Amino acid sequence: MRNIIVSLAIAMAALPASAANSVKATVNGMVCAFCAQGIEKSIAKMDATKAVFVDLKSKVVLVEAKDGKTLDEKAIGAAIVDAGYDVVKMEPSTTSVDEMKAASKSAKK
User: Where is the HMA domain (predicted)?
Assistant: First the structure.
């Protein structure tokens, strides 16, 4: 567990300080809809969160900010780790939750 926390701290330190409209996290350990739902609920409670989408197949969590709000990447990463999952990578994203949902639906067809 210590190695995971150290890895997360290193990854989080490399994040730019600038505001991101969306943040994409690559997450290991998610295997079912219950996993996705737990992550979605905890991140959706955050003040700046407009929408959250978890794609189990690609192991990605995408968080979109409310207009005029700034996402706290460290808090998002901490929420995912606190839920019991490993954050492999965290990065700003230009993809919206709606775009990711549409891409996920078309990939399932």
Answer: 21-88
